[in-house]
């Protein structure tokens, strides 16, 4: 499974409900194909750097999910057909991503603050977590197991990963 | 002699900003960082001018192009800005 990130630019004056229905549909496409949606990150209305379809503003939504290439195909097909969407772009963030690890990483503050009872265990876990996170950040957020191997040369690894994202991105471009 | 002086005068050691500061990320989601590496017209500044190293320039170019696609950065800049 790969980790993808899709930016969707809606028309700025589109009703929130319409946006919701589109996003729900896209989210269901991800789960239907066996993927996991990590989050919908709504950036809100922004000024476009150049007008698209004579519009100067757009509503940005960033979608972070794990899935296979088929999911991306299905999503882009839907997005392309919808005239209320000004533009979209999908970028592959990482290959062999573990959605559960990413979801856990998304809510680290909640996890760390909540379980207070097992003191000895939690310190061990915390140590593991911090180590995993540090390595994960350096190596472009790979899964915990691979992060240990990648720790030897995290900087070069990160660069290698981001560069591998080049080809599919340009291929996925319209 | 004059030429030598002139050269010495204008020569400034250029350092890749991304090598110097590893916290500085090249990311199409951060157009404000990328803005520094495009001209007013929106062109990507060559590395012989910006001093960026080859590796980071490649990465930078890719991210600028991505940023252009989703209208974070202009394809053709407005020179009035």
Short description:
Chain A is built from eight helices and four strands; from the N terminus they run βαββαβαααααα. Chain A is an alpha+beta fold.
Task: Give a structural overview.
The complex is a heterodimer of chains A (174) and B (81). Chain A is α+β, with helices and mostly antiparallel strands and 174 residues long. Chain A folds into two domains: 2-97, 2-Layer Sandwich (Alpha-Beta Plaits); 107-162, no CATH class. Helix content of chain A is 51%, strand content 29%. Chain A has helices spanning 16-32, 69-81, 99-106, 108-113, 119-138, 144-150, 154-164, 166-172; strands spanning 2-11, 36-52, 55-67, 85-94. Chain A has a four-stranded antiparallel beta sheet. In chain A, a hairpin with a 2-residue loop joins strand 2 and strand 3. In chain A, helix 1 runs antiparallel to helix 2 (69-81) and helix 5 packs across helix 6. Chain B is mainly alpha-helical and 81 residues long. Chain B has a domain at 14-69: 30s Ribosomal Protein S18 (Irregular), CATH 4.10.640. Chain B is 46% helix and 0% strand. Chain B is built from five helices and no strands. Classes of the chains: A alpha+beta (174), B mainly alpha (81).
């Amino acid at each position: 499974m790969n980790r993808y990130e899709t930016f969707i630019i809606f028309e700025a004056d589109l009703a929130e409900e319409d946006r919701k229905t589109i996003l729900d549909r896209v989210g269901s496409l991800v789960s239907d194909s066996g993927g996991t949606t990590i989050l919908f990150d709504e950036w809100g209305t922004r000024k476009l750097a150049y007008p698209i379809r004579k519009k100067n503003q757009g509503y940005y939504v960033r979608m972070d999910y794990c899935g296979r290439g088929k999911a991306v195909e299905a999503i882009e097909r839907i997005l392309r057909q919808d005239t209320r969407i000004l533009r979209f772009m999908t970028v592959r963030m990482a290959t062999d991503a573990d959605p559960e690890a990413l979801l856990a990483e998304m809510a680290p503050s909640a996890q760390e603050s909540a379980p207070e009872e097992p003191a000895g265990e939690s310190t061990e876990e915390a140590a593991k977590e911090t180590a995993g996170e540090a390595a994960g950040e350096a190596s472009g957020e790979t899964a915990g197991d691979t992060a240990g191997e990648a720790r030897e040369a995290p900087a070069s690894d990160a660069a290698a990963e981001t560069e591998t994202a080049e080809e599919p991105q340009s291929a996925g471009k319209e | 002699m004059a030429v030598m002086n002139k050269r010495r005068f204008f020569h400034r050691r250029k350092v890749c900003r991304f090598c110097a500061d590893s916290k500085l990320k090249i990311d199409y989601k951060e157009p404000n960082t990328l803005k520094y590496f495009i001209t007013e017209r929106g062109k990507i500044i060559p590395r012989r001018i910006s001093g960026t190293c080859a590796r980071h320039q490649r990465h930078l170019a890719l991210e600028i192009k991505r940023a252009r696609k989703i209208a974070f950065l202009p394809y053709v800049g407005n020179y009035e800005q």
